[in-house]
Design a protein that fits this description.
Shape: globular
CATH class: Alpha Beta
Strand content: 25-35%
Organism: Kitasatospora misakiensis
InterPro entries: START-like_dom_sf
Protein name: SRPBCC domain-containing protein
Number of strands: 7
CATH architecture: 2-Layer Sandwich
Structural class: alpha+beta
Number of helices: 3
CATH superfamily: START domain
Distance between the termini: 19 Å
Radius of gyration: 15 Å
């Protein structure tokens, strides 16, 4: 099975990266401005997409955030999961962590859906740069906005 895996170092404490992944303000600051929630299911809306992506938050703790696809849309995401592993990078041995290593993975692609993986990987790469920039600066720059010209992954 195909899996997307991307790793990057972020010049921000883990709490800032975690907030970007687990709060409404965080998610709308780097991914899409159309985020809603139904219990543990996050709804991500995108311009020109008929229905939101539904991702169930399975885990959200300081070390790891995990989402699973909770809907039938988009079809090529059926059965997939997304994980975000966060590790402190101390500035010096025994020092305080002011940087975070993020390991992102999107796996569980079903047979026949692998053709879409390269395009999804490219979109995730763009999103992770925005996540990093937001965690480091606090400046929101979501990739997808109403009326925007971007299309969903």
């Amino acid at each position: 099975m195909a899996e997307i895996a991307l790793e990057l170092d972020i010049a921000a404490p883990r709490a800032a990266v975690l907030a970007a992944l687990t709060t409404h303000d965080g998610l709308t600051s780097w991914w899409t401005t159309e985020v809603a929630r139904e219990d543990d299911v996050l709804l991500f809306g995108f311009p020109d997409v008929p229905e939101p992506f539904r991702l169930r938050r399975e885990r959200a703790d300081p070390d790891r955030v995990v989402w699973t696809n909770a809907g039938a849309f988009p079809p090529h995401w059926a059965g997939t999961w997304i994980s975000w592993d966060l590790t402190d990078l101390p500035d010096e041995p025994g020092g305080t962590a002011h940087r975070t290593r993020l390991l992102f993975r999107h796996g569980g692609w079903q047979p026949g859906s692998e053709d879409g993986v390269p395009a999804v990987a490219g979109t995730w790469a763009q999103l992770l740069v925005r996540l990093k920039d937001y965690a480091q600066s606090g400046t929101a720059q979501p990739l997808f906005t109403p009326g925007g010209h971007h299309h969903a992954p």
